[in-house]
């Protein structure tokens, strides 16, 4: 992790979401992932997701399972187009790898991880239509399997 900080420590000159001179931000918002190490008591920012060096996909979902962090779906922060991207962060190696793309574009969806698998359900497609589909992603096998449809669209 780069840029490690003691708990409660701020970047010098940082004013939250404003620039160091107090100016309002310009351009699309950028996001990153900061994690807490409970053993050391240190917060650290993860390296950027490879395809998105200036932030995360907007409205992506982040979940974890078996010591891995999974970032998936959302909108490209430059084009605002829905994406199918899947990225897995391995805490043991402190590296990102790209996973198999989601079967379809999806944003504003529910996601949860358990025993090396991630379930995604509902949300919206690239045309903002609500979805009743659900899929399960096997992180180690890098494969998607369709689950039964939800009885109600969305989530």
UniProtKB/TrEMBL annotation:
Sequence segments annotated as region (Disordered): 1-23
Cited PANTHER family: F-BOX DOMAIN-CONTAINING PROTEIN, OS02G0208700 PROTEIN
Highest rank taxon of the organism: Eukaryota
Entry-linked SMART domains: Kelch
Protein name per UniProt: Uncharacterized protein
Gene3D superfamilies per record: Kelch-type beta propeller
Alphabetical list of Pfam families matching this protein: Kelch_1
